[in-house]
Amino acid sequence: MHPNITENGSMEGFLIQKRLFTTFFKIGAFTLGGGYAMIPIIQNEVVEKNKWIQKEEFLDLIAVAQSCPGVFAVNISTFIGYKLSKTSGALTAALGAVLPSFLIILAIAAFFQQFQDIPWVKACFNGIRPAVVALIAAPTFSLAKAAKINFANCWIPILSALLIWLLGVNPILIILVAGLGGYVYGQIVENEK
Q1: Does the predicted model carry a pTM greater than 0.70?
Q2: Residue scoring higher pLDDT (56 or 113)
Q3: What residues contact residue 23 under an 8 Å CB cut-off, 6+ apart?
Q4: What is the Cα–Cα distance from 28 to 25, expressed in whole angstroms?
Q5: Helix (H, G, I), strand (E, B) or coil at 104
Q6: Cβ distance 28 to 34 under 8 Å?
Q7: Whole-number average pLDDT of the chain
Q8: % of the chain surpassing 90 pLDDT
Q9: Average pLDDT value for residue range 13-21
Q10: What is the pLDDT of residue 72?
Q11: How many other C-beta atoms can be found within 10 angstroms of the C-beta atom of residue 1?
């Protein structure tokens, strides 16, 4: 059964709200490395496990969430929550996504100064850093496959990454140029038919 937009106050609506909150709370609590590291976990929970949206729609939501101002995890949780249960779903999913981070940061801020110089704590953070890089890199390959990146068009993400990394080009400009390029290409292909 695919949960759909529900009436406020219904039992089904309450159950969807509860599932949205617990799903995004779990994602927020157990993901290190920020929004991009969350992508495979969100995909697993939202697309594969709960079947709330299709994989193609998930890719579109990632693109929209990345291009909107704000935190990626909040943006994507808001979009998914809104799709399932309008405004209340958006608020519930967003709260679920940010609450664990808020509580963890609050606890760290209160106690970190006392522990930051302990050798084993430093060693733990040194071990976590490379793992976070892997968590960010892994979804890149999965997204490339799902976005049908091949030898003919692989130059687009490679060039975009190099422009951002080496020349400091604003990612918003990259997104705008890529969107305009996709639109122009689509018009050319459409006119040829």
Answers
A1: no
A2: 56
A3: 45, 46, 50, 93, 96
A4: 5
A5: helix
A6: no
A7: 85
A8: 36
A9: 91
A10: 87
A11: 5
Find out whether 79 and 73 touch, Cβ atoms under 8 Å: no
Cβ 146 vs Cβ 55: under 8 Å = yes
Cα separation, 11 vs 96, in Å, equals 20
Q: What is each CA distance from 102 to 35, 81, 95, 108, 167, in whole angstroms?
A: 14, 20, 10, 10, 34
Two tokens, residue 162: 């190099």
30-54 per-position pLDDT tens digit: 877 667 778 888 999 999 999 999 9
DSSP secondary structure string, 113-180?
A: HHHTT-HHHHHHHHHHHHHHHHHHHHHHHHHHHHTT--TTTTHHHHHHHHHHHHH---HHHHHHHHHH
Among 42, 41, 54, 45, CA closest to 2: 54
> Which pLDDT belongs to residue 4?
47
**What is the spatial distance between Cα 39 and Cα 82, in angstroms, rounded to a whole number?**
18
Count of CA atoms in the C-beta half-sphere (13 A) of 82: 8
Is 126 exposed, middle or buried, given 0-12, 13-18 or 19+ CB atoms closer than 10 A? exposed
What residue type is 190 in one-letter code? E
Query: What whole-number distance in Å separates Cα of residue 108 and Cα of residue 168?
Result: 32
